Amino acid sequence: GQNIDQPTEMTATEGAIVQINCTYQTSGFNGLFWYQQHAGEAPTFLSYNVLDGLEEKGRFSSFLSRSKGYSYLLLKELQMKDSASYLCAVRLSGAGSYQLTFGKGTKLSVIP
Amino acid sequence: DTGVSQDPRHKITKRGQNVTFRCDPISEHNRLYWYRQTLGQGPEFLTYFQNEAQLEKSRLLSDRFSAERPKGSFSTLEIQRTEQGDSAMYLCASSSGTGGYEQYFGPGTRLTVT
Question: Read out DSSP for B6-62?
């Protein structure tokens, strides 16, 4: 089976930096996605990593280590609007390579 | 580009009734996906279309569920003889056939079975 783990909840202060970790054990791997989901809304795409290393996009960065089955999402200069759930999702290889397998999400609360 | 749209946004039905949801993907996207999400969980894959062909189906998709994409554009998801366990958010996503693999999600249809 596929296993994707992320912390259930995190709290951070406005203006700070927060790192949300994701570990995965999957039968095949073809890339890792991060999505943001505000309560009651659809997930929105944040980043896609397929090679090891750090991808930076504005205040958000995502890191991948394929050998360790590990990724993190780094959010800098936190704003109140960043309060949301952050979903880690793996794209498998072979059969099923177009579907995404999601973790349960990490609910981030940004406090003043 | 108007994004992925879904209709209806909310549906309340009684157990045993049939329901049908519609998804209109981003116009140039040839790949379309259905997911189901319950509270506190990430989306779970249900099925995938490339153009009009249904290429993948999850074991979650029981015989009561059927999906179509007759002309390779919009898609419908039908649930027959609904059960209370079917209550969830049903999300549709689409992606381009070229370039990146990111999927763009619609606002979802929230189904409540009473």
Answer: EE-SEEEE-TT--EEEEEE--TT--EEEEEEE-TTS--EEEEEEETTEEEEE-TTS-
> Å from B102 to nearest chain A CA?
7
pLDDT grade for B100, boundaries at 50, 70 and 90: low
Assign A13 a pLDDT band (cuts: 50, 70, 90): very high
Quote the pLDDT of residue B60: 78
Tens of pLDDT, residues B5-29: 999 999 999 999 999 999 999 998 9
* Per-residue burial over A19-43, b = 16 or more CB atoms within 10 Å of its CB, e = otherwise: ebebbbebeebebbbbbbbeeeebb
Chain A residues in contact with chain B using a Cβ-Cβ cutoff of 8 Å? 4, 31, 33, 35, 41-45, 48, 87, 89, 91, 95-96, 98-105
Flag if B45 and A105 touch (Cβ within 8 Å). Answer: no
Write down the pLDDT at residue A94: 72
Distance CA A56, CA A47 (A): 9
